[in-house]
Design the sequence.
């Protein structure tokens, strides 16, 4: 895992993961295309910037060993169903295609608890459709992380998370909220030592357990 690609590096999970990647001795190069420039600086980071993330992705050159996709928003934050689909489906697929083009063999993606292509709920349905598309790409290693409600300090607060976080903290198993850094830690551990070849779906409770072992 010398050369990695990460999208969503300005987000809640992506920012935590990027900081871990910088500290990881086995990583020498981090391609982190973004729509706005990263505040974080490191000699390891290549940060092509373009408001159209796909155009920034096109500027990344190989080889790439491992791809992390931490893109994610909400319908309210995106502004419309179409914008949400673009952010949480199209750009995720674009990230995966860029990774395959550059020679990557392992894709790790932050999805969501309840992802189901046939769900009655729009958010879960789009996440499930995204997962199905990635599975259809036949990656040697594909890790789909399904965290519950994420906690952690955001640049821009999400009202729904602030209101619901106390409730989700009381829920059991995969429904209990999870700290964004725990998701990042679990992703990095899976990248170092994949649990299984092919498709590996990691529910929220397992992410928390994996993160505890990675500390």
Sequence:
């Amino acid at each position: 895992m010398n050369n990695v690609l990460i999208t969503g590096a300005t987000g809640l999970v992506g920012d935590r993961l990027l900081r871990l990647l910088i500290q990881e001795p086995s990583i020498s190069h981090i391609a982190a295309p973004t729509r706005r420039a990263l505040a974080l600086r490191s000699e390891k980071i290549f940060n092509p910037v373009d408001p159209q993330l796909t155009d920034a992705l096109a500027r990344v050159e190989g080889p790439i060993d491992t791809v992390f996709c931490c893109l994610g928003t909400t319908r309210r934050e995106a502004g419309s169903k179409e914008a949400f689909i673009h952010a949480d489906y199209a750009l995720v697929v674009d990230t995966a295609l860029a990774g395959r083009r550059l020679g990557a063999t392992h894709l790790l993606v932050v999805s969501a608890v309840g992802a189901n292509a046939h769900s009655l709920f729009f958010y879960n349905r789009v996440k499930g459709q995204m997962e199905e598309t990635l599975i259809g790409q036949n990656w040697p290693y594909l890790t789909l992380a399904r965290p519950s409600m994420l906690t952690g300090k955001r640049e821009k607060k999400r009202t729904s998370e602030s209101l619901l976080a106390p409730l989700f903290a009381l829920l059991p198993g995969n429904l209990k909220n999870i700290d964004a850094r725990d998701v990042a830690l679990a992703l990095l551990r899976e990248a170092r030592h994949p649990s299984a070849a092919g498709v590996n779906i990691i529910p929220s409770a397992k992410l928390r357990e994996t993160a505890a072992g990675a500390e």
Notes: The helical segments are 12-23, 53-57, 75-78, 81-101, 122-135, 159-168, 180-192, 204-214. Strands lie at 3-7, 29-31, 45-46, 66-69, 106-110, 141-146, 150-151, 178-179, 198-203. The mean pLDDT is 91.
